[in-house]
């Protein structure tokens, strides 16, 4: 892959709390093509393929997850596994059309560990997240969403800083620059992993409430 270009001056206005040194140029199809051959960290080696974001190039809202799962790794599309199905149900309950949103992840490759034949999700470390941040920054610069929602702790801390905690700050809007606001909520996979049914039900209900907030904000934006 060709070297990335230095971050443009307006990159300083990106709704990201963590630094981005260089940002690949190009429109979304070009970025998607370039990301396929990214070798900025070791995660590309065991992964099947890069899982880039999907959605309208001028989407008003961007939902940012953490990293692809096994089914996303196989298909090359974000949020198509069990967590994606749960997100689809929550979006439907909140009155949001997935096709109108841009969905992506903080990290674009599936990191996992083998357990027999199973590939179990393993969280990307800080250096892997930092290496992949240029792609998220490029997506944000190209799409220029008015609203950004972080799904899960990794995305939330990328947006708001390492001190952010989902358990105490989810669902709270923050200004993230000129005409951009953001919030964070539960990642659907975190909801699915909760061992107690009552806790899962409560977290899912909170996810829907937060997505309804998103729907309300989007309805109030100028066309």
UniProtKB/TrEMBL annotation:
Q: Which UniProt keywords apply?
A: 4Fe-4S, DNA damage, DNA repair, Hydrolase, Iron, Iron-sulfur, Metal-binding
Q: Return the SUPFAM superfamilies for the record.
A: Uracil-DNA glycosylase-like (SSF52141)
Q: Which residues form the signal peptide?
A: none
Gene3D superfamilies in alphabetical order: Uracil-DNA glycosylase-like domain
Locate the coiled-coil region(s) and give their ranges.
Answer: none
Q: Does the keyword Cell wall biogenesis/degradation apply?
A: no
User: By its UniProt entry, which InterPro entries does this protein fall under?
Assistant: UDG_Type-4/5, Ura-DNA_glyco_family4, Uracil-DNA_glycosylase-like, Uracil-DNA_glycosylase-like_sf
Instruction: Describe the location of the Uracil-DNA glycosylase-like domain by residue ranges.
Output: 52-212
The record's section on PANTHER family has: TYPE-4 URACIL-DNA GLYCOSYLASE, TYPE-5 URACIL-DNA GLYCOSYLASE
Q: Which family does it belong to?
A: Belongs to the uracil-DNA glycosylase (UDG) superfamily. Type 4 (UDGa) family.
Provide the protein name.
Type-4 uracil-DNA glycosylase
């Amino acid at each position: 892959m060709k070297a990335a270009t230095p971050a443009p001056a307006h990159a300083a206005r990106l709704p990201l709390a963590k630094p981005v040194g260089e940002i690949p140029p190009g429109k979304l199809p070009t970025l998607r093509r370039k990301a396929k051959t990214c070798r900025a960290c070791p995660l590309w080696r065991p992964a099947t393929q890069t899982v880039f974001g999907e959605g309208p190039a001028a989407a008003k809202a961007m939902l940012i997850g953490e990293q692809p799962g096994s089914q996303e790794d196989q298909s090359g599309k974000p949020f198509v596994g069990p967590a994606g199905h749960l997100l689809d149900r929550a979006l439907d309950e909140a009155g949001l059309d997935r096709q109108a949103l841009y969905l992506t992840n903080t990290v674009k490759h599936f990191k996992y560990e083998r357990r027999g034949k199973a590939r179990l999700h393993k969280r990307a470390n800080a250096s892997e997240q930092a290496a992949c941040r240029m792609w998220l920054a490029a997506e944000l610069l190209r799409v220029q969403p008015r609203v950004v929602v972080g799904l899960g702790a990794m995305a939330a801390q990328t947006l708001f800083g390492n001190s952010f905690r989902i358990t105490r700050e989810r669902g709270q809007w923050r200004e993230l620059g000129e005409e951009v606001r953001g919030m964070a909520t539960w990642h659907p996979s975190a909801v699915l992993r909760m061992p107690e049914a009552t806790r899962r039900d409560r977290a899912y209900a909170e996810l829907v409430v937060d997505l309804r907030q998103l729907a309300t904000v989007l309805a109030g934006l100028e066309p």
